[in-house]
Design goal:
Number of strands: 14
Mean pLDDT: 88
Number of helices: 3
Distance between the termini: 39 Å
CATH class: Mainly Beta
Shape: globular
CATH superfamily: monomeric porin ompg
Largest sheet: 12 strands, antiparallel, barrel
Radius of gyration: 18 Å
CATH architecture: Beta Barrel
């Protein structure tokens, strides 16, 4: 499968800013703090199946593949999308690069748009690496206009994101995320603010469950509100399966979304053994 990429002059400028941002972040990673960042001895932690991404990066020298399929209903129509693949690579302690691969959206019945979403590279820096406290990361990425306009919208779409988490007692934890999506080529909503909040509970050594609030607030339009819930089961230290069910709370949100997923991690790509 080949994907054509059309990059305008403004897109080149945005990519240049993105690269400079990567170099700036690389220069700020403190060596002492980096020793407390995730390593290959830690269990896999993913950005799915909840909307809220993990506040932790993947270990240095590790490649993580996260994948899933969703079945959803909106306005009487039903659709399926997949594989919702995100690849994450630890390029330095506390620092990863990631890319969201194009996802195909197809209509099962009723009306709806079909086609691929954009490819979206990003960089993620774990700001607070010490476990057991409030962990925080910063993500800067940009959707490159490679997909269908009806699915992905027009032009490059940069975003800035801050996922956080706080481990409580007896397996309980809370987390959330604040995201600003910028859509300079969209004349109706040039900015979308997304906020999430999650309550999670470890029910065993391998299984955990969560409940999540998701709110999308487009500039100049009504919000889209959902409740999302699901579970994660670790097949091993490096593999997990997951499921989720989201229900819309207002007419701007989908009626429901049901999804399943599988993720895995490969360590030691740069000769970095578990510590």
């Amino acid at each position: 499968m080949s994907i054509g990429i059309v990059v305008s002059g403004s897109s080149v400028s945005n990519v240049g800013i993105w690269v400079v941002s990567i170099l700036a972040v690389l220069g700020t990673v403190d060596r002492a703090a980096a020793e407390a960042c995730p390593t290959a001895k830690d269990e896999i932690t993913t950005d799915r199946p909840d909307v809220t991404n993990s506040s932790l990066v993947v270990p240095f020298g590790s490649l993580q593949s996260e994948n899933g399929v969703n079945f959803s209903s909106r306005d009487g129509g039903r659709s399926i999308d997949g594989t919702n693949s995100r690849w994450r690579l630890g390029v330095a302690p506390c620092l990863e690069v990631l890319v969201d691969l194009p996802t195909y959206f197809g209509t099962v019945n009723g009306s709806g748009s079909t086609g691929f979403s954009d490819v979206a590279p990003a960089i993620k820096w774990q700001i607070s690496p010490v476990p057991g406290k409030i962990d925080l990361s910063a993500v800067f990425g940009m959707a490159v206009p490679t997909g269908a306009v009806a699915i992905a919208g027009r032009g490059p779409q940069p975003y800035l994101q801050f996922p956080w988490s706080w481990e409580l007692h007896e397996g309980w934890g809370v987390s959330g995320m604040f995201t600003e999506f910028f859509r300079p080529s969209d004349f109706t909503a040039r900015r979308i603010t997304e906020t999430t909040f999650v309550i999670e509970k470890s029910l065993s050594e391998r299984f955990s469950a969560f409940a999540e609030y998701v709110g999308d607030y487009p500039e100049g339009a009504g919000p889209s509100l959902m409740i999302n819930s699901g579970g994660i089961y670790h097949l091993s230290k490096l593999q997990q399966v997951d499921f989720h069910l989201a229900v819309g709370l207002n007419h701007n949100a989908p009626n429901y979304i049901v999804g399943i997923g599988y993720s895995f991690r490969v360590d030691g790509l740069f000769g970095t053994p578990a510590r």
